[in-house]
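Board notes (copied after class):
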Amino acid sequence: MTDRDWRERRVEVQGRPVYVRIGPEVAGSVPFVHVHGFAVSGSYLMPTARALAGRATTLVPDLPGYGRSAAWGPALGIPSLAWALLDLLNALGLERVLLIGNSMGGPVSLEVAHSAPERVAGIVLASPAGGAHNQPFGRALLQLARDVFRESPRMLPVVLPDYLRFGPVNGLHLFSELARFPALERLLCTPVPTLAVLGGRDPLMPPRARVREISRLAPPHLTVTTIAGAAHAMNYSHPDDLGRVIGRWLDGGDLAGGPGAPGVAGRRPARPGDS
């Protein structure tokens, strides 16, 4: 599937345009909505979005103030971005979706699921940042700096214009909020089927022993797995691996044999459509 199969649309949300990339329509599917990280647009999510576009109608928005979407005044925090995403779903006429969030897109997706679980068939959290492992803030900055050298150099020209447009002041402010976000607490009480996919080389994620501990604490509808060799932006660097893991989860398959998985939480496959 190429970019020629995709179309662009600007949707009015609260009187302001929001830019959305939309893949080919897949009749009868629950749409997939990919949610980007802090300071960047949805551009770097496109490799995974393309890999999954055959399964469902796929949308990749730029949240307000990011990429090609107009800013709504000062940079929006995570709760405000979640409400903006819900408003966007309303404007697009999407009653129920699967959210696939990377980095800050994970907390945004969690907030949407907690506030409107009836609108969310399930969420996929690819490298969901935030929480004790990213605190204090100086530690999070060092983790982020380490991650820069683990990402694919091909991603730099994709995200650099976004970072420059967003600006360092907004970036530091929002990254500080992200580091304080109680990701684990929100994850462990997720109200919808949830798949958390961690990068084996992601310095912003907890160590493997902690991941196993989290897996033991997880409710039945939360699944945790790892992609070996992936850093934080796995949606760009490992789209095929991530797409396969998501596909297995959606199909109710066994993720224990997934790429480098240290363990899977949950007593049964937790996927959209489960009651």
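Comment from the instructor: The CA atoms of residues 32 and 58 lie 5 Å apart. Confidence is low (pLDDT under 50) at residues 257-270.
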